[in-house]
């Protein structure tokens, strides 16, 4: 998949051939077809890998905090999610923006939203914040973050990225009625 990702990013999905992918990966076409039936299947696998990579970064950031640090966990979630998108902006654009439009299901239920829902429900259970519907709130916060990080030219310099991550953290915390401490 790494060879396909590189070629798709360099040449575009339509211009890349399966032969170029197999040559780049050092495998036979038959091996390709054991795993994928088409370039569209490869793109779907790249989507799944991208989202799983973002989730892995979120989990690592959140689990690295003290159990009772709910504010820190929420801030870490927003920062890790945004960083995951920004660090792989080209792949995200290729896999999600240049591909068929996102479905309602994809924008309202995915592994990132599910993880955020669980975090919000757990924090609510520990009286860290008041949220009447963790699922609704997770969809709202995720899609707000997703919309912001997908703006053209956003966070391109280290200073702009730091400001963006700070602003996202503030908005995530304020969205649950928590003081950010960095306004």
Distinctive features:
mainly alpha, elongated, 183 residues, 10 helices, single chain
Q: End-to-end distance, in Å?
A: 42 Å
Can you write the helix and strand succession as a string?
A: HHHHHHHHHH
Considering DSSP H and I runs of 4 or more, what fraction of the residues is helical? Answer: over 70%
| Strand content bin | under 5%
Number of strands: 0
Helical segment tally?
10
Question: Which stretches are poorly predicted, pLDDT < 50 over at least 5 residues?
Answer: none
Task: Write down the Rg.
Answer: 19 Å
> Main beta sheet, described?
none
**What global shape is seen?**
elongated
Mean pLDDT: 91
Structural class: mainly alpha
Overall description:
The structure is a single chain. The chain is mostly helical and 183 residues long. The chain is built from 10 helices and no strands. Helix 1 crosses helix 2, helix 4 crosses helix 6 (89-97) and helix 5 runs antiparallel to helix 8 (111-125).
Brief overview:
The protein is mainly α.
How would the blueprint of this fold be written?
Elements lengths: L1 H10 L6 H8 L3 H7 L3 H25 L6 H18 L1 H9 L6 H5 L2 H15 L8 H16 L8 H18 L8
């Amino acid at each position: 998949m790494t060879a396909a990702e590189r070629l798709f990013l360099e040449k575009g999905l339509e211009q890349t051939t399966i032969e170029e992918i197999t040559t780049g990966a050092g495998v036979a076409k038959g091996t390709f077809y054991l795993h994928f039936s088409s370039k569209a299947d490869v793109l779907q696998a790249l989507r799944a890998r991208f989202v799983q990579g973002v989730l892995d970064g979120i989990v690592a950031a959140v689990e690295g905090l003290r159990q009772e640090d709910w504010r820190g966990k929420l801030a870490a979630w927003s920062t890790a999610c945004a960083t995951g998108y920004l660090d792989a902006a080209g792949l995200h654009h290729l896999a999600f923006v240049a591909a068929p439009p996102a479905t309602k299901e994809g924008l309202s239920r995915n592994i990132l939203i599910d993880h955020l829902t669980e975090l919000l429900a757990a924090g609510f259970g520990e009286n860290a914040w008041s949220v009447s519907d963790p699922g609704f709130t997770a969809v709202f916060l995720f899609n707000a973050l997703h919309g912001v990080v997908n703006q053209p030219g956003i966070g391109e310099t280290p200073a702009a990225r730091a400001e963006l991550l700070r602003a996202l953290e503030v908005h995530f915390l304020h969205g649950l009625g928590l003081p950010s401490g960095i306004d």
